[in-house]
Structures are given as C-alpha cells and as structure tokens.
Amino acid sequence: MEIAEHITAVGQEASLFAEAARAGGLDVEIAGCPGWDMRDLVRHLSEIHLWAAAHIAQPHEKPWVDDLAELTEFWPDLAVFWPEDGDLIDHYLDTNANLIGALEAAPLDVESFTFLPAPSPLAMWARRQAHEIAVHRFDAEDAAGTTSSFDPAFASDGVDELLAAFAPRASELPRTTTQAIVVHATDTDDRWHVTLSPEGISTVRGDGPADVTLTGHASDLYLALWNRNENADVTVTGDQEVFEFWHQNHRVRWSS
Against a cut of 0.90, is the pTM above it? Predict the structure, then answer.
C-alpha cells in the first residue's frame, strides 16, 4: 500500500472506531486489552495519535507517551487535559484529524524517529497508525457487539507489518528448537514464511518447509495473528503447538 492509502485508512478506521465507541459506551470492558474499558481505549488512541503527529511534525524532538502532559508542548490545544466523558470521542476525532494533517503536510523525505523497517519514516508512521486504529477498531466493535469488515488488501498489509516488521524485533524466544509457520491469505494469495528459533523470529515472503500452515482470508488471519478473534475462520494444518506458542509468546515490542 502507498502512503496516501494508509493516510486515507487512518481517517476511515477512526470514523469506524468512534462509531463503535459511541455504540458500546465508555464503561464497557475491552476483551482485547485486559483491564481497560472503552474510555481507556479512546484515550490510548488519542495519546498515540498526538505522539505520532509530534514525531512527524517536529522530527528533531523525541517525545514519549508516558502521559498526556508529555505532549502538551507539541499540541497545547489538544494535550492539556482529558475532556469530560461527553466530549472524549469528539476529542479523539480531533487528535485523528491533527494526525492526518501532520501526515499530509510532511515532506516525503522527512527524517524522524522510527521503530519499524519501512521505505521511509513517513511510510512507517502512516502504516503503523492505520493498523493501530484498525486493530483497536475491532476491539471497540467487539465490545459494542457490532462488526464491520476489513478490506482484504489492507488486512494483508497488516499481516505483513506484524510478521515482517514487528515480529522480528524479538531478540530471543523461550524455545530450544526451531519451527516454521507458513501463513497464506487465500483472498489475496499473499504468503509469509515465519521461522521461530531460540534467537528470535525471522520472516520472508513466500512458501517454504513448515511445521504448521495457517490458511484463511486476510481479515481472519489479521485478527488471529494479533490474538484478537478466537472465532476467526483460519485453518490450522500441522503442529497446533507451534501456533499456540505464537499466541502465548508473541508480544509487540517498541524497542529491540
């Protein structure tokens, strides 16, 4: 996917997320984020958007997301305090619009902090924010009892980000042997070969010898690999233990 497509997705996914948040209410618990309610999830995405936008708009600074006050100097109109519940979702949409503005205004060759491999910093931030919202959009819809689909190409892109960018950041795994997973998205015909070893995870595009193969539509694979949907329609062929190991041990890492 191109940068412009990811930026479009940032807005589209935010609208769906906000709709689900309103439908579910701020007090409903989020199964995909244990210990959080919808209020926490809305605040999390708002903060992440402000953090990402700061890196893009002021790339020589290195803000972190410890709390909202950390971002006040960058976005004084949006990061002063959390609004009351009645205004919280609208505030989220404002932070999303601010993020889109920063992404659209940034030069293609902007240099900034990154934490995932990508063709450029701008490409990384646009892609990461699009999928950050999308996964949490599912969380919000799941909590609200509503559902909407993912575009196959977008879902496949999300699988690729997870398997080829996030997963290899694991420097070691609690394993004594090496196993491999092949992931095949049948509706886009994309394939990934993932190797799990004591040293960590490596991923290449394509087929190869595997202990277990995961087959399904890109949307189902997207959610299953993010440990989001136990009912995702994914066919597991081979050693189920290897897939269970993924579920139990793979975690998103922000630093190596």
Answer: yes
